Every structure is written in C-alpha cells, then in structure tokens.
Amino acid sequence: MRRAWRLLAAASLTMLLAACASAPSMRPQTPAVAVVPTPVPTSAASSAQTLIAAVPAPAPRDLWQRIRAGLAMPNCDANPRVVPMARMLVGDPNAFEQTLSTLRPMIALVQQAVEAAGIPSDFTLLPMVESGYRPDAVGPGNFIGMWQFDRGTARAAGMPLLPGYDGRRDPWVSSVRATRMLARYGRDFDDWRLVVWAFNQGEWGIKRMLAQRGAPPVEPALPNWPVGAAARDYLLRLMAYSCVIREPGRFDIHLPPSVPPAQLWLTKLDAPLQPALAAHLAGLPTTTVRALNSGYLRDQMPFGAPWHLLLPRAARQHFLDRYALLPPRQWAKFARYRVQRTDSLHSLLPRVDSKRLQLLAGINGLNPDDTLARGTTLWLPKTLRQRALTRIGGTSGIPVWHEVSAGESLWSLAQHYRVSVGELRAWNHLRSNELRVGQRLRLDAPG
After folding, report:
1. What are phi and psi of 16, to 5 degrees?
2. Is 15 exposed, middle or buried (0-12, 13-18, 19+ CB in 10 A)?
3. Which of 127, 193, 295, 433 has its CA 20 to 30 A from that of 269?
C-alpha cells in the first residue's frame, strides 16, 4: 500500500472477469447510495436467511456518470503533467476500452464502497493504480490484494487475517475497509491529495509534514512537498485516470456502456461453503468463483471468517434455486464424485428413496433417469459418495477407504458395503476380526 505496485490492467484482469472540475474538494461527500442488503425469500426447504446486496445499488445514472459526478481531484489541465501521463496510461485506446469493459464489475463494486464511505469517486480508480483491480495481486514487500495492504495496515484497518482466509484478497471486505480508512484520512487531512499520499506512504509521515509545513495551497495541483518521486508519480497517476474518465473523448476513448451496469452480487451465507461447490450451484466455472472470492485460501470457508460469496448477477437466481434445496449446514457434508463408467443415479445409489434421489438430481441439474457419462462430476453427500465408490470396487482404480468408528465390526461393515468379511480381511491383511477405532480399512480389491 505504501509503495504502489503497478500492473498493466489489460493483462491482469482479463482472466478474472472474462468468464472483473475545479480545485480539490476538501471534505468528504455525502454518500450517494446506501449499502443496504435486501432480504430474499428462500424455499421452505431451506432455513437459510440469505441476504443479497446488489453491487452497485440501482441508480438513474450509469456507472461512468456516477464516477464523473463524484470526482474531486484537480481537472485535466490543473498540471501540465496530467494529460501526458493520461496518454501514456491509455496507450492503445481500443485495448484500454476493452480493459475498462472487463473491469466494469469490479469498478462498480469499488464505486459502491466509495459512495457508502462518502469519499470522492477518484478513489474508485485507486485500485487501478495499485494492482489493476486484481484481488489476488501480490506486490513487492508482500503487499496483497486490490488495495495492496501489508499485514500490519490490514489489521489496523480491521481486515480479518485468519488461517484459510485473507481479508486483503476479498474484493468486498478490502474495499469497504480501505474506503473507510480513506474517509478517516479525509477527516484528518482535509485535503484529498494528502489522503492519497497518506494511503501510499503511511499516515504518520504525512501528519508530521503537515505539522511542519502547514496545509498545501490549492496551487500547484501537485503540492511542492518532499515526498519523493514515487509518491508524486502515484498521485499523478490517480489524477490521470480521473482525467480519462472525466474527458474520455480527449483520449479517443469511448467508455463501454454500463446501463444497466455490469453487476456483482454479494450473497451472505449462514454456514461455510466450499467455493468449488458454490461454483457448481451457481453454474459457473470454479476458476471464476475462486477469482471473485480469492480471500478464501482453502477448499472450505473457515470458521471465524466472513461467510459470503461474490457472484455475477446473472448467476444469482441459479445459485439461490439450488442453494435453497437444503439447509445451509448440510452443504458442508457434500463432496465431489467422478462417474467411473456409464451409469445413472438409480443404479449408482440403489438404496436411496425416490424423493431424496430427486433432490440430488436437482442439486446436480439432472433428471434421476439421465444417463451419466463416464467422467461426469456429481456433488453427493459424503456418505453416499463413499457408497458409490465402494459399489464400483477395484474397477475404478481408486482405492476406497473407511475409518472405523466406535461400535463397528467387520461383519457390520461387510453388510453395509455389500462385501464379505473374508474379502475385507484379505484386502487389509487382517489376521483376526478385531478392529480398533480410527483404523483405516480398504474396501475394494487392490488393483
């Protein structure tokens, strides 16, 4: 955060979302849009109280109009270096337009956080300077995320940093915390240019300079403070991006349409969910869901972390329809199963009653009678997945194991998995029928 790590936005975010005036105003603005999650009714089959927040909230103006209306940095001609810097950052206008088109959902998300914090929309463009809006960006010195926070500053800003979760990589959490920090800097410094430097350099150094030198005048637009070339370049780049949005025609830029704006939706969950399972429920590639929710570092959302998902608006209903099929906490008991040979749910799970089979079919976007081609991926409760694996025995080429629980015996396991006691003993090289709790037994013949 203190030293900007600059990336080429066109290259950095294509993989994320292709499937992401006058003198400076001296005081924070009143937020144009309040962030109020809207309750969404769920199915009677679900006990979830799911909250959905539109990102951004509906507004009569398009995204670029909203950003332009909130700009507070000096205009394009306030300093002779601004326009040349803007031309350099734009480069090829066609490529820059494509970059903006790709970035629209993430820009809209940051704009909502900016409006809620009541700060100028110039700060919506700050992640462009920092990281090219990449939530997974890792810069020099281990500065992480769209806003490039180190661990100490992230903790000071209130971002959770837990085993399995890093708030700096969470687009929504990091944007909310960063914009609140910027709003506090605005109250402290009373000059948005100093706020930019405080975010880049650290607030205490800027406070010392402010005490020594007093507030900088409106002119020159780039204050004559001894902050170093990198800090001056940082502020200049933000001014240049603001200039491009303010006067796109000056740079042969046609801002991509954003009415209605490209939207992301924040879905609050009542229980942890695997990102890969969330992708399945939303009908999206796992890579897309992981990119939008890169704060989760493991396969399962950890306890103590925020439980939410950022999803494209187009996938919202698809996700809710499937998520509502079960109470939230049951989703933690699901695992992936890869069909090993042409099959059907009926034959794969012969003991499952028709009502439950219909539910599992719906979760997987199937009919119970559909033919399942080899290689099809299903999401099944872990107990049923284990049963499906044992049914195919050694023909799958995948060893199948069971961990012995209290009260289980070779006989009960043989009955459950439809094998013989002799087979279990032979597959596990057992000399007696005695088992111990925690012992792992192979349930299929070695290949």
Report:
1. -80, -45
2. middle
3. 127
